């Protein structure tokens, strides 16, 4: 990945976090941008979100953000217009890294709890 792509990803992550937390975070929820991946031509930014919404359906928060993509992109343009020629399209995705880690830990625990099989019964003494 080129340095330009990495720098733009970091810039988008910082600025989008400010925009979402200030204007597009429903009350009682906490939205975190975990990663931003930018295409090599800098035209599309895949933004990965983690949502903590106690007592609320997280899907509603993702839908709320998806409905407001044009206005989020407009606010982003105001922040980065002097640093890029074209404002990238924003695609928001749920970050399932935490779920994946929990699933893997559960699988490892199950493997550890299984009884150990004898190594090789054909060994002669």
Structural class of the secondary elements? alpha+beta
**CATH fold category name:** GMP Synthetase, Chain A, domain 3
Any idea what the radius of gyration is?
A: 21 Å
Mean pLDDT: 85
N to C succession of SSEs: HEEHHEH
Task: List segments where confidence is low: pLDDT < 50 over at least 5 consecutive residues.
Answer: none
Strand order of the largest sheet: 1-2-3
**Tally of alpha and pi helices:** 4
DSSP summary, beta strand count: 3
Query: How many domains, in number, for the residues?
Result: 1
Q: Helical percent range?
A: 40-55%
CATH architecture group name: 2-Layer Sandwich
Biggest β-sheet strands, sense, barrel: 3 strands, mixed
Tell the overall outline: flat
Task: Using the coordinates above, name the CATH class.
Answer: Alpha Beta
Describe the structure.
- With 125 residues, the protein is of the alpha+beta class.
- The chain has one domain (3-113): 2-Layer Sandwich (GMP Synthetase, Chain A, domain 3).
- Helix content is 48%, strand content 19%.
- The chain is built from four helices and three strands.
- It has helices spanning 3-23, 58-67, 69-80, 97-113; strands spanning 30-38, 44-52, 89-94.
- It has a three-stranded mixed beta sheet.
- Helix 1 (3-23) packs across helix 3.
- The mean pLDDT is 85.
Which descriptors would you attach to this protein?
alpha+beta; 3-stranded mixed β-sheet; 125 residues; flat; GMP Synthetase, Chain A, domain 3; single chain; 48% helix
């Amino acid at each position: 990945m080129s340095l330009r792509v990495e720098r733009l990803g970091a810039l988008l992550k910082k600025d989008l976090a400010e925009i979402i937390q200030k204007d597009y975070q429903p009350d009682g929820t906490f939205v975190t941008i975990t990663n931003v991946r930018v295409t090599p031509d800098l035209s599309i930014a895949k933004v990965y979100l983690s949502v903590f919404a106690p007592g609320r359906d997280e899907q509603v928060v993702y839908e709320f953000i998806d409905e407001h993509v044009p206005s989020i992109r407009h606010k982003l343009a105001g922040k980065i217009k002097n640093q890029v020629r074209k404002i990238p399209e924003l695609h928001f995705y749920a970050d399932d890294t935490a779920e994946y880690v929990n699933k893997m830990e559960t699988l490892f625990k199950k493997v550890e709890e299984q009884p150990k099989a004898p190594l090789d019964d054909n060994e002669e003494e």
